[in-house]
Amino acid sequence: MNSRGRHFSAIFPRLGSRLARAVAIAAALLALGGCVPEAGAPPPRVEAAPPPVAKAPALPPAPKADPVPESPASAPGETRDSADTDEAPVVVGILLPLSGDERELGRAMLSGAMMAVFDHAAPGLALKPYDTAGTPAGAAEAAAAALKDGARLLLGPLFSDSVAAVAPVAERAGVNVVAFTNDRAAAGRGVFILGHHLEPQIRAVLAYAGGRGIRSLAVLVPTGRFGAQAAVAADAAAREAGIRVHEIAVYTDDVPSIDRAVRRLARYDGRKAALSERRTALKRRGDPESLAILERLKNRDTLGNVGFDAILVPSGSSPVYAIAARLPYYDIPSDRVRVLGISTWDRLELRYEPALRGAWYASPATELGSLFERRFSEFFGKPPGPLAALAYDAAAVAALLGRRPGADFGVPALRDARGFEGASGLFRFHADGLSERSYAIVEVGEDGVKPVSPARRSFDAPRAEASLETPTRTN
After folding, report:
1. Which of 4, 8, 203, 326 could form a Cys-Cys staple with 420, CB 3.0–4.6 A?
2. How far is CA 198 from CA 36, 110, 246, 386, 462, in A?
3. Digit-coded pLDDT (tens) for 345-402
4. Residue 456 DSSP one-character state
5. In 17-99, at which residue ranges do the beta strands (DSSP E only) sit?
6. 427 is a domain residue
7. 44: which residues sit within 8 A by CB, 6+ positions away?
8. Which residues lie across from 216 on neighbouring strands?
């Protein structure tokens, strides 16, 4: 698809001779506390993987282990391509936790962002990292430093409380923010949320489930704001999909609480009591037919249905494993109750949980995302982690908008109705600052997960007048 296609397609080039030079330059700059170098002149066309070709520079370097200063300056001895000019660079600041408890996550995200700069940026755009230290105060200071350095767009920060601290600083400067949080409360007033927030994921998986016969739903959510948002989203999405919400159960982040919540949803005590009463009645009758029924019930733990044919578990990591282990224990039959989830499940090894075989969940996984992961791992020697793709996409959007005359990072440009397709899937921003995304539905099997409903490749929306300068895809 050419540059006037429907949306931005991130094409990831293979390793090339330009890579080593780019790595050496950027690694040296980061070691000296400098910013990521400006992108050089576009190289010759390079073979892409998969087969199409793209005009894009090679992969960027890994982040340096030392923290990046809050207000990085051009490092001594900075090397630029011969095509560089003496004009002032277009500065984009990226605010990440490069020190503190989340420094490894922040550095992986910085690596992903630098990949996008080398893949897509034109000469004259400089992506400068600023360390938030993972705190609201650090994020506000980082934003102020970036704006002082002339940043025309801010990428990040990561956490919602840090976004809240950055928002008024950016708003006073008239600079927009593309934040990595998934907290919808942080959106608005020039802040655009790139993270995967709950509502579209829950809507996608329930729409798919409703279209395949699911009619009654149990919902199991954690306490707190996240759980409250999930419950509200599930109720609304279920109505849209023609599904009745049977019950919403809440648990705290500990095993006994999860155990109690699953037991209550399963109506385990009542169903166990019903089985005991049934056995007593059959024994009292004592006729051959009753004794035959009693024999068939001898391996049963409960009697009666749970009252729902799907259970939504919008959680990640340890709660999912703990919940999955308790579904068969409390006699919630996997052959009659479908488990549903969200994109955080992408990080889990679900195939080892028998109770989750056949489960469906919403995922941003695409071929481009898989290609991004392979490229990242090939060079950096480790997986990109859960949020590096978001950082890639944010920096790619900045790079592509920065190629326009005057480097337009205004609200209309960010809200291009065609959207953008990147490593984290297809997305576009709305006026309220939230992102709309397209999700695939994947099914868990013994050998892993497989897509059962692909994500959309474009939005059904009017074309934007302006066209993004994207790499050319040919067949």
Report:
1. 8
2. 33, 25, 20, 16, 26
3. 988 888 889 999 999 999 987 888 889 999 999 988 999 988 999 999 999 999 999 9
4. P
5. 46-47, 53-54, 90-96
6. yes
7. none
8. 244
